[in-house]
Amino acid sequence: MGVAHAIQREATELWAEGKGPLLVAIAGGWGVLLGTRMVYPVLLPYLRSSFDLSLTVGGLLVTVLWLGSALGQLPGGILADRYSERAVMVAGALVVAVALVFVVTASTPLVLFAATGLVGLGQSLYPIARITILSKIYPDRIGSALGVTMATGDLGQTVFPPIGGAIAAAVAWQLGLGFIAPLLVVVAVVLWVTLPVQPSTGSPVDSLSAESASSVIGKLRRSNLVFVAFILFLYILIWQSFTGLYPTYLVERKGLSSSLAGILFSVFFAFGVLVKPLAGAAYDRIGLRRALAVVLVGPVVGLTLLPFVDGFWPLVGVTALVSTMLGSGTITQSFFSDAIPDEVQGTGLGVVRTTTATLGALGPVVFGALADRGYFDEGYVLLAAVLVVVIILTLRLPERSRA
Question: Which intervals hold domain Major facilitator superfamily (MFS) profile (predicted)?
Answer without folding.
Answer: 21-402
